Amino acid sequence: MDYIVLDLEWNQSNTGLEEEALKLPFEVIEIGAIHLNDACRMVGEFSRLIKPQVYTEMNQITSRLIHLQMQELERGRPFTEVMEHFLQWCGKDYIFCTWGDQDLKELQRNMKFYRMEPLSDGPIAFLDIQKLFSIAYEDGKSRKALEYAVDFLSMEKDIPFHRAFSDAYYTAKVLEKIAGEFPEVLKKKSFDVYHPPASREKEVKVQFDTYMKYISREFDSKGEAMADREVISSRCYLCHRNLRKKLRWFTSNNRHYYCLAYCDKHGYLKGKIRLRKSEEGRIYVVKTTRLITEQEAAALTERRAHARELKRRHSQQ
Fold first, then answer.
1. Which of 239, 252, 274, 315 has its Cα between 20 and 30 A from that of 309?
2. Which residues of 181-204 are buried (b: 16+ CB within 10 A; e: fewer)?
3. How far, in Å, CA of 250 to CA of 166, rounded?
4. Per-residue pLDDT averaged across 66-88, rounded?
């Protein structure tokens, strides 16, 4: 499988008053990409400016950041034309790679705005190089700027940052470095969920080294989602047994829910549910389950006690 390292630049309204601002808060104005083969060697490049159709004035902050003027963009081509060429250039057997998790979402939002055929009818697996850099070289939790990663890896900075092609180029160089030193990290895929799974059969269930991820189909409400048996199940991802919960699902903010279960063979298992809202306003669930230590289980128990106390105080007000 090849790698398409993608970066976008986009413009936005200065006022937020345009009718299109709700449907298209960020209009893509530049696409840059690097094509790496399965050995992470550069074999192609793509760079196109896009002529704006929605925001015909450059946002002041955007202009200072990416050093693009509207006169330059007038020489670009329409978004749909550029996208058609880009997808042809990508080929067939590839995975998208981006620095962070926003580019694919905004690309698909622009495609929807222009009524283009979607990239997928469900979640798209991709490599978040920002996350992989943290896993490979830092704590796995921090998220640093691209230029920080380039400096950390002592790479030459031979073209300016903050343009789509240059940022895609540097991201590809970081990916190439990670692949050479920590190839196992490339197994840690992320999922863009601009389009949630269309049905129960298309729900995502992926097992990684230390945890399991589940992405549900859409539900009409939070209550319906939290009543679904698959959503609230606690299954050991090593022996695949359904486990009895030590702590039932609880929350302190009505967005993130936690539970604690115990596997006789593998120990304590923590479940975490994130409730997300789709572009259509419906609810879907991202659930992770992972094995934790006895000390972490005790901390989760204390967390539930704290959540219950907060709920009790709120009910007395």
1. 274
2. eeeebbebebbbbbbbbeeeeebb
3. 45
4. 92
Class of domain 198-316: alpha beta
Q: Are 263 and 294 in contact (CB under 8 A)?
A: no
pLDDT at res. 17: 66
Among 83, 63, 85, 87, residue whose Cα is nearest residue 9? 63
DSSP 118: P
Extract long-range pairs of 77-84: CB within 8 Å, 24+ residues apart.
77/48, 77/49, 77/50, 77/51, 78/50, 78/51, 78/53, 79/28, 79/50, 79/53, 79/110, 79/114, 80/114, 80/116, 82/31, 82/48, 82/50, 83/31, 83/111, 83/116
Residue 21 and residue 15: Cα distance in Å, rounded? 9
309 or 154, which is more confident: 154
CA-to-CA distance for 128 and 314, rounded, in angstroms? 39
**Alpha carbon distance 161, 135 (integer Å):** 23
Give the model confidence (pLDDT) of 118-143 as tens digits: 999 999 999 999 999 999 999 999 99
- Span 191-206, pLDDT tens digits: 999 999 999 999 999 9
Two tokens, residue 145: 């700027």
Q: For CA atoms 234, 225, 120, 8, give the dihedral sign.
A: negative
Q: Where are the domains of the chain?
A: 2-187, 198-316
Higher-confidence residue: 112 or 60? Answer: 112
What single DSSP character describes residue 254?
S
Cα gap 190→184, rounded to integer Å: 14
For residues 284 and 221, give the distance between their C-alpha atoms in angstroms, rounded to a whole number: 9
Report the C-alpha gap between 242 and 260 in whole angstroms: 12
Q: Is the pLDDT of residue 180 over 90?
A: yes
Cα–Cα dist 168/44, whole Å: 12
Question: Would you say 150 and 171 are in contact if contact means Cβ atoms under 8 Å apart?
Answer: no
| pLDDT given for residue 48 in this prediction | 97
CATH code, residues 2-187: 3.30.420.10
